[in-house]
Amino acid sequence: MAVELDAPANDAEAGLGEEAGRLAAWIADYKPMPGVPDELIGPDGRPRAHWMTLLETLAGLGRRGVENRFAAAARRINDMGVTYRVRGEARERPWPLGRLPLLLTESEWSEIAAGVAQRAELLDRILHDVYGDAHLVSEGALPAAVVAGSPEFIRPMCGVAPVGGRWLRFYAVDIGRGPDGKWWVLGDRAQAPSGAGYAIENRLILARAFPSLYREMKVRRLAGFFRDFRAGLAAAATRNDPRICLMTPGPWSETYAEQVYLARYLGFLLVEGEDLATSEGKLHVRTVAGLKRADVVWRRVDADWLDPLEANAASRLGAPGFFDAIRRGSVAMANMPGAGLVESRALMSFLPALAQRLMGESLRLPNVATWWCGQEAERAEILRDFDSRAIAGAFGDKAEGLLGAPAAVGAELDAAQKDRLVAAIRARGMDYVGQEVVKLSTTPAWDNGALTPRPFSLRIFAAATPEGWKVMPGGFCRVSDRRDARAITMGAGAQTVDVWVIGQKASEHATTLLPPNNDVPVVRVPGHLPSRAADNLFWMGRYLERAEATLRIVRCLCNRMTEIQSNTIQGRQPIERCERLLFEWGAAAPFAAPHPGAVIALTAASNADFHGSARAVVGEAKRAASIIRERLSQDMWQLLVRLETRLESAAARPPLEPEILELTERALHTLAALSGLMDENFNRVSGWAFIDLGKRMERAINTCRFARQFADNDPTIEALDALLELVDSQITYRSRYLAGAALAPTLDITLLDPFNPRSVAFQMRRIDEHLASLPALVDDGMMEPQRRLAVSLRADLEAEDARGLDAKRVRAVEQKLLALANAISERYFSHSSDPAPADKRSKLA
To answer: Which DSSP string do the residues of 478-537 spell out, in sequence order?
Structure first.
């Protein structure tokens, strides 16, 4: 048989040929933009060696293998619940992680890290001077208008000595390559830098998609940076074993998911402004055990919103007296209010000279060339060369004549726009800077099986530690979807990618946040649960139990519609009572024939337009869970998302009548899995007590409602049997009684049986046990009001006789349960003030 000369001799050689062909095609088709530095193609026009290692591995996987890895990464994003929110949008978006990482060599990274550490130290020294002795202003090195003209200059912080001696503790800087291929600083971030949490999540997702490649390329790890940052915050506190809080603006923040992840990853207490209170010049967290001292706050709330007494009076994100606590030195901050001053573009034009003055060094990472128009000579220079400059706000992104954009290039404006902007600069030049037009360099992006150059910017993070500034060996990289971009935000179309710093040898850096030695004392202190977290855990438990109750009614309705043989009262009574209960709960509304029962069942299960439907209630449970996500395991969150998705899909494509029962069964199985996770995996501390309290409270209330609906007004055997099904007690009943369902035995099992985990009496025993275990505000040995109500109701149920129960007495139990729920809320979930009287407060810890 003849053999073609160019044909491979065997399958292995054929595979190698295909791999080489793919790699060659990727390189040949990759066309960097003229005059713009590129990460893949070096100045010599050849691919960089470290990129070739990555691309060779991808080529070896084949197209299908690569796509499978990328699909696994996408699933991981959904499983982890990594999201973000665009400003103005209510719904969160899935995290847009790009397929390829940004690669940096160790030698290049060392230069970047040294420049970032130097810049962080310089900015910290500037803040010390500006808010302290103000030598820079008084000696003419820095114009007063650059300081006082900034909205981020927080006057109440003047003269304050920061606890721990640092104005900056967490700093970020956006950088990009200049036309010469060297890195330039595009902007500083010191107010409340975001992106570090997303950088960790990007790493976890991509490293899991390509684990062997990650190891072979000796990628530097991130955990050591966060361990050092945490140690730096702890060292700044004035007490041993400090309470460190991450302060969030709340669930509507654009980066709330990141803040939740960071709090969970670092073990910090996630708090909102309403969780905080000041007393005697100290900052405290409102907890279910009263006010507890906050020693360190890593804030993600802008300074102007921290204290409505001394800053923005309209703020609901901060706490009155916050600034006073800082002035008194009772709380360490990361970063101090007022640190955002160094983000101004106006300051950038003075940094080269200030670096020489304060540190005796030149900037290792130069700025984009910047001219502040508050100076006559610089203003004239910008107006003279207006068309070739980018004009931006000196103290933010809003300035007259910029058409609502962060910056405008003179040559791109029409005559009227140009005249308006020039007039604004002449009238009030201090509000503007002129900058060299920056055209971002490019990095390879994966585009439908090919490589395409895309502009990017890179955010690097630095943390103050007892050993000095430490720089994260990686960062947060944003990639534009447009080929020509000057600035990138995480809006529609933009992506983010992981940043790999390629080491010369296997990384010796930590892979976890565990300390490197064994000198950590063993403790079993459960910690103190913030009132807001307890509130949301309680309602999460209630909503999940409410969804289960609704789905149980839907299942009961479907079963009865399948079993019914006639329209007699015995057959119709349980169906009518199921439907009536769904109407009363707001889960559905009466529908006309045909098939009204099936329509009602489907609506109650999956129609979010009805506030009592299972889908709507699951949505409320998920919203409550999202606020306390740092306290939930990844498995719990995934099950919640799966449950919501399953009910949503049923509404999008209504199932056939037999499928409604299957949908309901699967949803109940997911709820059972959630309940099992809560029972088996939730640590038995206050958080678990409140989620179980909510579950028990809701189950007891719903069971009373089931009993009133199905055991009143001459119930048939079929109605009582439906009641036993709703409380999952049919097997127990049949094992005890040979006869069919009778009223008194059914009510006893449903309401009074202390051994039935679905009865009201069983719930009250568990509720009373939880309340007994929770901390008291006052150590005087007396029962608090909510505990007295629980003990009284528990005793009533234990002494009750099922033969004397009727709808009126069941309703009375239900009303007492509702009163107990209100008492629990008033005691543990009060956010407006300390619930303990001033003369009886326990010692503030």
So the answer is: EE-SSSS-S---SSTT-EEE-EEEE-SS---S-SSSS-SSS-PPP-------BHHHHHHH
Do 413 and 448 share a domain, yes or no? Answer: no
Which residues span the domain enclosing 742? 720-838+841-845
Question: Is the pTM for the entire model greater than 0.90?
Answer: no
396 and 486 assigned to the same domain: no
Cα–Cα distances in Å, from 460 out to 169, 179, 212, 246?
14, 20, 26, 20
Residue 61 forms part of a structural domain = no
* Alpha helices, H only, 596-633: 596-606, 614-627
In percent, the amount of the chain with pLDDT more than 90 equals 63
Structural tokens at position 678 = 């809560």
Same domain, 318 and 401: no
pLDDT in tens, 515-530: 655 566 676 666 678 9
- Average pLDDT taken over every residue of the chain: 88
Looking at the domain assignment, is residue 221 inside a domain? Answer: yes
Contact indicator for 397, 358 with CB cutoff of 8 Å: no
Q: Are strands 290-293 and 282-287 parallel, antiparallel or unpaired?
A: antiparallel
Q: How confident is the model at residue 512 (pLDDT cuts 50, 70, 90)?
A: low
pLDDT in tens, 13-32: 445 567 777 888 888 889 89
- Per the structure, how many domains does the chain have? 4
pLDDT of residue 524: 63
Q: Is residue 758 part of a domain?
A: yes
Q: In what order do the strands lie in the sheet with 332-334?
A: 269-271, 244-247, 296-299, 332-334
**CA dist., res. 588 & res. 609, Å (int):** 9
Express each pLDDT in 391-425 by its tens digit. 999 998 888 878 777 788 888 889 999 999 999 99
Residue where the block lists tokens 């064994």: 518
Tell me which amino acid residue 701 is: I
Q: What is the dihedral sign for C-alpha 328, 329, 330, 334?
A: positive
What does the pLDDT read at residue 12?
43
Examine the domain organization and report whether 430 and 286 are in the same domain.
no
Whether residue 472 sits in one domain with residue 424: no
3-state secondary structure 292-313: EECCEEEECCCHHHCCCCCCCC
Spatial contact of 534 and 690, defined as CB atoms under 8 Å apart: yes
Instruction: Select from 481, 502, 523 the last residue of a domain.
Output: 502
What's residue 70's pLDDT? 87
Residues 116, 345, 350: CA angle, nearest 5 degrees: 75
**Per-residue pLDDT for 544 more than 90?**
yes
